[in-house]
Amino acid sequence: MSRWPIPDPMQRALALAQEAADAGEVPIGAVVVRDGAIVGEGRNAPRAAHDPTAHAEIAAIRAAASALGDERLAGCELWVTLEPCAMCAGAIVHARIARLYYAAPDPKGGAVEHGARVFDHPQSLHRPEVYSGMGEAEAANLLRAFFRERR
Amino acid sequence: MSRWPIPDPMQRALALAQEAADAGEVPIGAVVVRDGAIVGEGRNAPRAAHDPTAHAEIAAIRAAASALGDERLAGCELWVTLEPCAMCAGAIVHARIARLYYAAPDPKGGAVEHGARVFDHPQSLHRPEVYSGMGEAEAANLLRAFFRERR
């Protein structure tokens, strides 16, 4: 049996999640892609940075917007290892991300298919296309291993 | 007739909103207060900063967390001139802000009493006390004047 290969951007997001774990942060990674090339990336860093907003998605979006010199990332994709929370889903709206790919769902903290369902309200100024599941087991395993060690 | 005085933190948030307008940004300002003293402040800056996450609340929370050296702002208040959006409401949750004061409601983009109602889901890891209305007319007038000039 051969396993369906995980797309390159999600492989990079998973590597960034591992970097976060190695630094003692919850292992979540994200990249922003435009025309097939990574234009911004990030990983969780709130503890070391003393910054409650330092989620992987926020870091990747800020890096991409800075690199492209535009507060809007029209036509860009965001690849992230976990379903975004309300804060990050809101940032995805503001950045006008065209397509969101996330690996694992997050019934506890996610706000795309759970909880606040940020994109599903008439007030949402923008709705990305959303795809999930690619790399789900790998992303979930990273999180499980991280929290197991800390218990 | 004497008008009920606007509390000092909201007066500062309104002044920051005016600064944003003067810089060509949507006029919204915010301050974080601990034990009666401002420990972080911010105003809207997404256009100039090329940063879709550069909302007043995010800037104020990041500044306060950096100043206090802690990703959590337990016991702190956030004062902001407009009802927070989903991104900022999510950041308020992550920062564990104890009390949220906002001046004007935002039926179009707000996510506290409108839309995603971020604090109202069982998944919300934290719920601040919420108060609104102090300085409402002043905050709304700043926004109206800003958008009137741009039409």
Automatic annotation (TrEMBL), chains A, B:
Q: Does the keyword Kinase apply?
A: no
Q: Which reaction does it catalyse?
A: adenosine(34) in tRNA + H2O + H(+) = inosine(34) in tRNA + NH4(+)
> Any transmembrane segments, and where?
none
Report whether Zinc shows up as a keyword of the record.
Answer: yes
Molecular function (GO) terms for this protein are: tRNA-specific adenosine-34 deaminase activity; zinc ion binding
> What are the protein's UniProt keywords?
Hydrolase, Metal-binding, tRNA processing, Zinc
Tell me which residues make up the CMP/dCMP-type deaminase domain: 4-113
This entry's comment on the bound cofactor is: Binds 1 zinc ion per subunit.
Look up the domain of life of the source: Bacteria
Quaternary assembly = Homodimer.
What is this protein's name? Answer: tRNA-specific adenosine deaminase
Species of origin reads: Pelagerythrobacter aerophilus
- Could you read off the lineage of the organism from its UniProt record? Bacteria, Pseudomonadati, Pseudomonadota, Alphaproteobacteria, Sphingomonadales
- Gene of origin? tadA
